[in-house]
Amino acid sequence: METVTSIVEMKRAAGSLRRGGRTVALVPTMGALHEGHLSLIRQADARANVVVVSIFVNPTQFGPSEDFDTYPRDLERDSELAQAAGCDIIFAPEVDDMYPASSATRVCVSGLTERLCGAFRPGHFDGVCTVVAKLFSIVRPHLAVFGQKDGQQVAVIERMVADLEMGVEIVRSPIVREPDGLAMSSRNAYLSGGERRDAVVLFESLKHAVSRYGAGERNVERIVSEMREMIEAKETTDIQYIAAVDARTLEDVDDAGEGVMLALAVFVGKTRLIDNVILGAE
Ligand code: PAF
Questions:
Q1: Do 278 and 261 meet the contact criterion of CB atoms below 8 Å apart?
Q2: Does the beta carbon of 79 lie inside 6 Å of ligand 1?
Q3: Distance between first and last Cα of the chain
Q4: Percent of the chain having pLDDT more than 70?
Q5: Which atom of ligand 1 is nearest to the CA of 29?
Q6: How far, in Å, from the CA of 128 to the mean position of ligand 1?
Q7: What does the DSSP 8-state code read for residue 218?
Q8: Predicted TM-score of the model (pTM)
Q9: Predicted confidence (pLDDT) per residue in 32-76, tens digit
Q10: Which mutation among 33, 40, 61 tests ligand 1's pocket best, with the greatest number of atoms within 8 A of CB?
Q11: Is-contact 89 4, C-beta < 8 A?
C-alpha cells in the first residue's frame, strides 16, 4: 500500500490508473477508522481494481463550536486498518494544500441541505460537498462508497453528482452497528459509561418504528411520538430532531411507506449522534 500526501502526485497516479484501464474506487473518510469505515473499504475492494481511501479532517464542514481541533487523528493506525481491509492507496493531503489562501470556490447543494442536520449545522454540507467534489477531481474515481449512517450526506452527494454530471457511481453502504445496535461512529468514543448505555435507545427507538410499521402502522406522527417518548425517558439524551423523509429527496412525508427514512439526531451528554432506518429495506 502506498501513502500519498501531495495532490500533484495523487493526480498523476490517478491519471496513470485510468490510462491503464483500472477501475478506481474512492472511500472518503476523516480517519479515526472503525468497523463501519472498514466495511466501506471492503465494499470498494469488491467492486474495483484499486481502492483509494482519503483521510482528511475537513475544516470547512465543522462549525465554530464543533470538534475540529479535538477530532482523533492517527494516520499510522488508520493506514494499518485500511490496508488490512483492502486499501491500495491512502490519500492524506494537508489542509493548506486542499484549501490554499487563493481558494474561492464552494459547492452548495440547495434544498436538501437545509433540513435535518443541515438546519442545525449551517454551512456543514457546503464543506462536505466542496471537499468531496475536490477529492473526485483529484482521484477521478469510477465509484465512491459512502455510509448510509450519514443518510442526508449520501443523498446530498448523489444530488451533487447528478447535477454536475460528475460521472461517479455513488454506492450506499449499510450501517454497521455494535452488538447492542448502536451505530458505529468515531464520536462514540466521546461517550461516558452511562451515556454509552443510554445511547442504545437511538437504535431501539428506530427498531420500534420498524416493528410498528411491520405491524401495519402508517401514521408517521404517531410513530415519531412513540420514538420521542422512548428517547426522552433516558436521563442523558436531548433530541435535536426526529424526521420521516423520502430517503432520496429528503422531502417530509406524512405516511410511513417503503423508502421512507426515519432519521434522528440526539445529543447524548455533549455528544451529538445520528442514526436512521429506511422502511421496507431492513
Ligand atoms: O463522512 C465523512 O467522514 C465526511 O463527511 C467526508 C465524506 C469524508 C467528507 O469530509
A1: yes
A2: no
A3: 35
A4: 100
A5: 8
A6: 6
A7: -
A8: 0.96
A9: 999 999 999 999 999 999 999 999 999 999 999 999 999 999 999
A10: 61
A11: yes
Ligand 1 center to 203 CA (angstroms): 22
CB-neighbour burial class of residue 265 (10 A; exposed 0-12, middle 13-18, buried 19+): buried
Instruction: Give me 178's grid cell.
Output: 455494535
pLDDT at 31: 98
Place of cell 457511481: 169
Q: Which residue has the cell 452488538?
A: 179
Active site residues: 37
CA distances from 131 to 3, 17, 46, 117, 175 (A): 19, 22, 25, 18, 23
Cell numbers for 38: 472498514
Ligand 1, atom 1: closest residue by C-alpha: 29
pLDDT band at 258 (very low <50, low <70, confident <90, very high): very high
Helices 75-85 and 35-47: crossing angle in degrees, nearest 10, is 40
Q: Which of 40, 131, 154, 276 to mutate to test the pocket of ligand 1 (most atoms within 8 A of CB)?
A: 131
